[in-house]
Amino acid sequence: MVVTLGGDDDPLSLPGYKGVALKVLKESGVQAGDLIRISKDGTVYEGVLMPRSEYGDDRHIVIKLKSGYNIGVRVTADTLVEKVGAGAEIAFKPPPPPKQKPNLPRVSIVSTGGTIASRVDYRTGAVRPAISAGDLYSIVPELSDIAVIETEVLFNLFSEDLTPSHWARIAEKVAERIREGVDGVVLTHGTDTMAYTAAALSFALQGLPVPVVLVGAQRSEDRPSSDAALNLIGAVSAAAEAPFAEVVVAMHETVSDVSVAFHRGTKVRKCHTSRRDAFKSVNVKPIARLVDGELVMLTEDYRRRDRNRELTLKPNFDPKVALVKFYPGMNPDIIDFYVEEGYRGIVLEGTGLGHVGRSCFPSIKKAIKRGLIVAMASQCIWGRVNMNVYTNGRDLLAMGVIPLEDMLAETALVKLMWALGEADSLEEAKTLLKTNIAGEIAARSIYT
User: Fold this and answer.
1) Which domain holds residue 348?
2) Nearest residue to 178 via CA among 145, 200, 206
3) Residues annotated as catalytic (active site), given as ranges
4) What CATH number did the domain enclosing 374 receive?
5) I need a labelling partner for 273 at 20 to 30 A (CA). Which of 28, 298, 362, 427 fits?
6) Nearest to 90 by CA among 56, 133, 128, 52
7) Which residue in 343, 426, 326 sits closest to 377, CA to CA?
8) What is the pLDDT of residues 373-410, one digit of tens each?
9) Domain boundary residue among 293, 313, 333?
């Protein structure tokens, strides 16, 4: 076969292919998922035709061998492609859910997506949202011994695609389920921005009577090393019976399948890209841990469960707030941009005790004069802002920059969005920002 360069169109049946490889595959009448045979230079390769990355070159065909490994075969003038069989549809079929035990606590699992609600797509090798909350219940039957589970899919999104408007909808859904009488709510959520959502719900759900537990996974549930099942068991256990009534994040405490830690929603950060113990409480201890099915409280500083407490929903967030990380040589035009774009608040992520370079001072003054709330958090993970120590800090205080104590920068961003969304005036928003509402400000820092 003489191969000439084809067009760059990318039909749905051959995603990612272009040029020479696309031409050969189209002429052979195959599509992704088909079992094909490639003959080249006296060697025969047989496997399932895989889609390609859109960033791949135009001269390789990728197949999955029977061994499970993928290989790329470079297309040359003598390459012959034949269709051996049509591809079978690959679909996840969860087992039937276990029988409910009506005498157990009621827990609502609301799915928003993320790795914990995803599977590996073995056609592409990518992880994609695919599993509902009901599927999770079916594949973790141990949950039937913990609670009566009610499931619902609210979103099926990776967490980086969530916005403040999604936070509001999540808060409204949680409030709805709590008012229906459940003993706790579990939210399955992607890990990348789970701390932001946890902070948002901590402010939006005032006077919680029962726990709200966000849970995720670093590895999808169909992988042997998945942390999904243990995390979900821990989350449901806490929602059903924990003595606290706060928004918490439930994730592996260590890399081993030993315990699940429960972190306060305003004091948690994802500290590793892929480890199973990626989440850590910052400047405080975790509220509790689950070990061998037993919930162990680690502090007395928590809000108690009280089913008679009345929930107040305050789900409004103003998205016109920016988080600006200072760095050496930063152009202060970045601050001016947000002012001109009509933003209402800026959280500065300053160095050390809360500093930015003096070159930024005129822009900060302008922002405050124009009516923006400008607040200061630290880039450091542990410790707290103290802007009285050095001249730059004191000068920023004199301008009207608000120090945020030991509040995490992510939490500060969310809280300022919430304060501006809920307050009727700028002064009220400032007061809310400086008031400890959900444990986001500790009276003193501890070393853990």
Assistant:
1) 321-434
2) 206
3) 115, 191-192, 270
4) 3.40.50.40
5) 298
6) 128
7) 326
8) 999 999 999 999 999 999 999 999 999 999 999 999 99
9) 313
- pLDDT tens for residues 201-243? 999 999 999 999 999 988 766 555 677 889 999 999 999 999 9
Q: Comparing C-alpha atoms, which of 178, 167, 166, 132 is closest to residue 151?
A: 132
Q: Read off the pTM.
A: 0.81
Q: State the sign of the Cα–Cα–Cα–Cα dihedral 11, 14, 16, 20.
A: negative
Which of 15 and 116 is assigned the larger pLDDT?
15
Q: Based on the structure, what is the number of domains in the chain?
A: 3
Q: Are 281 and 352 in the same domain?
A: no
CA distances from 94 to 91, 111, 137 (A): 10, 16, 9
Nearest Cα neighbor of 440 from 234, 95, 199, 174 is 199
Assigned token pair, 414: 């969310």
Q: How far apart are the first and last CA of the chain?
A: 68
**Where do we find the tokens 């999770």?**
136
Q: In this predicted model, what pLDDT tens digit does every residue of 118-171 receive, in sequence order?
A: 665 554 555 555 566 677 677 788 888 999 999 888 988 889 999 999 999 999
CATH number, domain containing residue 33: 2.30.30.520
Q: Which amino acid is at 128?
A: R
